[in-house]
Amino acid sequence: MLQRILLFLCLLIPSFCFAQNDTTQYFDSKWLISDKQHAMYYRVFTKANDLYKVEDFKIDGKLIVSGFADTVDIDISYNRQGKHTYLASTGQKIKEGNYRDGLHDGQWSYYRLPAESLDRTESYINGAIAHATGYDSAGKITSETSYKDGKKDSIITYKYHPNGKLRSVSTSVDQKTIKNSYYSITGEDTTCETKKSGVVYQFVEQMPSPPYDMIQYLSNNITYPEKAHKKGIQGRVAISFIVNNDGSITDVTVVQPVSPDIDAEAVRVISTMPKWRPGRQNGKPVSVIYTQPINFKLN
């Protein structure tokens, strides 16, 4: 008989049987608990298995947050759990990610408006940020930041050519740049290494060149080593050197040897060359590594 009475009441007044699963809280403009009359926002808890679905609304009924919580007790602080989505008043996503026991957990995504394109992602471990990645409006990565104990540890910055090809990669630790890599508009790696004097390129948009006839200069200035001549030693030696951004020649090194005497003469003649026209990247003079072959041949 009691079950029939309860069923009858539920049929007559459905809200009596189901509204008990919903709880509503009201908040003022600072998200302090308020009464309905002075509220700017309200929060609705709805039972969902072992958790409660939590939805925050503006007082006009626009949804701004959707997620889950572990309790509906309005007298105690509850912990957000699971996936949460935050919305602008236009209904577009602002950010989205997971909570575990009230702490950020795993990857969170943040969006730029009005296009709702990905602006950055952040990865969390036990509520502490571990890594963040920034994106431009085209979806290309612009930065990667690693964190240690909640503080920035290292930052990698990416820049692009107008055609979308990667232009440079810069790595900084403790706000000090420790490495730069550069790429041509066609995608070639133009960075050789970073020295104390700055970045040295391998390929640039305008390669360095001598303002004189190189073959004639070598012919006029090379002296065939006497020992090598007597022993009949000949061959092709390759010399690497840096044409600095002022055209001067430094860091002369043998990369393909023939014999000690021939190698030394090749280094000497390259080291004493007059200045070159420096290479240029993005319209600016830069230092470029260059390799010059020299043939030592007996007549």
- What fraction of the residues are assigned to beta strands by DSSP? over 45%
Please name the CATH architecture of the largest domain.
Answer: Alpha-Beta Complex
CATH class of the largest domain: Alpha Beta
**Helix/strand class:** mainly beta
Count of discrete alpha- or pi-helical segments spanning 4 or more residues: 5
- Give me the side-by-side strand order of the main sheet: 1-2-3-4-5-6-7-8-9-10-11-12-13
Mean pLDDT: 85
- Largest sheet report: 13 strands, antiparallel
CATH topology call of the largest domain: Outer Surface Protein A, domain 3
Helicity level, as a percent range? Answer: 10-25%
Write structural notes for this entry.
The structure is a single chain. This protein is mainly β. The chain has two domains: 20-201, Outer Surface Protein A, domain 3; 214-296, TonB (TolA/TonB C-terminal domain, 2-Layer Sandwich). Helices cover 14% and strands 49% of the residues. It has helices at 2-12, 14-18, 214-221, 226-231, 260-271; strands at residues 22-27, 41-48, 51-58, 63-69, 80-87, 93-100, 103-112, 117-125, 128-135, 141-148, 151-160, 166-173, 176-182, 191-195, 198-201, 235-243, 249-256, 279-281, 284-296. The protein has a 13-stranded antiparallel sheet with strand order 1-2-3-4-5-6-7-8-9-10-11-12-13, with no helix packed on it. A hairpin with a 4-residue loop joins strand 3 and strand 4 (63-69). The chain starts with a helix and ends with a strand. The model is unreliable at 1-20 (pLDDT under 50).
